[in-house]
Fold this protein.
Amino acid sequence: MSLNDILIMFVALILGTQICRFLPEFLPEKVLSLPILQKLNKMLPLVIMVLLLLTSLTFPKSGEGLHLILAQTLALLCVLGSYIWFKNTFLSVALGILGVNVFLSILS
């Protein structure tokens, strides 16, 4: 990937993030109070957590590294439990990272 491609992607990410942040400031209150947007606002942290969890899994090939998938599964259960209990995305991500490392050290 060339430097120009990386810079274009970087600018696109910046613009996408800023549009998402500033768009609610310019939308009328009538649009912001739509039930679907209210539901999305409540469900978005959970959706982000699920996407992070699913993309973090690495599946072992040909029976190797079963301890890795077991450690990841246990860490995912810790993340799920902490998110349900504390409702804090940052804490759940931190506990997931800590959990994977702890379970890997225990299982290895």
User: Anything to note?
Assistant: The chain has a mean pLDDT of 86.
